[in-house]
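Researcher: Structure for this, please.
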Amino acid sequence: MVEDSMEVFLDYFSVVGDTFEACLAHLWLVLQRYVETNLVLNWEKCHFMVKEGIVHDHKVSKKWMEVDKGKIEVIEKIPPPISVKSVRSFLGHAGFYQRFIKDFSKIAHPLCKLLEKEVKFLFDDVCMVAFKCLKQKLVSTPVIISPDWSESF
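Model: Predicted structure, token format:
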């Protein structure tokens, strides 16, 4: 079914079809497979026959795909870390996009040093510069920004 009637990304999937009837038929097959294999769906996360929605931080519709503006605002408003736990959390989220950020490990190095054992937590100016730099890179091209559809790809 993958690539024929459904798209899969990690633990999400979308059932697709050229017509409404085709979508229903494909959805029936997917749900039937779930029953046969004793898998369950979280119905709070299931959305059927929607015209638009949020998928992996992107607002997707029939004619358009754009980054969820709320995600950018959340990243922009993240306060500087105040503990090892908050540094680890921030780096975990930022690390998801590290392949898109040139010199990620060099930029994040001061923050990573705070995670070492038996190191006193001291969020100094060097850490602040690294934190602000990563935040800026997370909300700019090519990580989380809407494509310019008037430009060629």
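Researcher: Any notable elements?
Model: The first helix runs from residue 20 to 36. Residues 52 and 126 are 42 Å apart (CA to CA).
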